[in-house]
Amino acid sequence: MKYKYILFDLDGTVTQSAQGIRASLEHAISQLGIQPPNLDDYTLYIGPPLIDTFLNLCGLGEEEAERGAELYREFYNAHGKYMNKIYDGIPEVLARLRSEGAKLAVCTSKYERFAEEILEILGIQDSFDAVCGSNLDGSRKDKKDLIPYAVEKLGGSFEADRNAAVMLGDTWFDAQGARLCGVDFIGVEYGYGAIEAMREQGAKSFAKTPPELLSLLK
Q: Residue 41: which residues within 8 A CB-CB, separation 6 or more?
């Protein structure tokens, strides 16, 4: 393998999650009693940190945005997380990478416990060596903070092992985080993000399907 530490974004890279995310967002917006934005464009709210969605997409102030995030998490915990599905080919990719000695982590801006629970629901929690996400207070929500955290949690030293790590993701936020951290990035075309947006952040390699990731990681 070209890389020792392989970091997977969750939504749009490992799992098809749009249904649960949208339903949770619609519920929170309804409870807040605000005018709902157009949610047809998944790139506007799948990928960004949750609090940023309420601040920017919904145009809320800090306090109201935090309330929106709380309402979202309540609904997502009860309903949304069960709407996830694994992309075809992902379990086989994970098994192959681990068989060749790579260390794998989920690296997501989603609340870390939710990410752990989703993997458990889908039965693939044992396919990853670490699950790395944001804290409940919203800290560690950006990929530039999550990537070093993930490498360290996999047992590496980020400063020493930067060249041995790669971020896999489907959005501008994933590509930007990799660029800011100085690690390689591989984009996936089957997710929710825009390819050109990832290219703007320096992305050059893309996989059309999960199995194509294997050849790009060698």
A: none
Residue from 9, 11, 174, 184 carrying the catalytic annotation:
9
- 185: helix, strand or coil: strand
pTM of the model: 0.92
Known catalytic residue: 170? no
List per-block mean pLDDT (blocks of 10 residues) for the chain, which spans 218 residues. Answer: 96 96 96 92 87 92 95 96 97 97 96 96 97 91 96 97 97 97 98 95 97 96
Rounded Cα gap, residues 156 and 178, in angstroms: 17
Exposed e or buried b for every residue in 177-206, given b needs 16+ CB within 10 A? bbbebebbbbbbebbbbbeebbeebebeeb
- Largest separation between any pair of C-alpha atoms in the chain: 51
Q: Where are the beta strands (DSSP E) in 46-172?
A: 85-86, 103-111, 130-134, 165-169
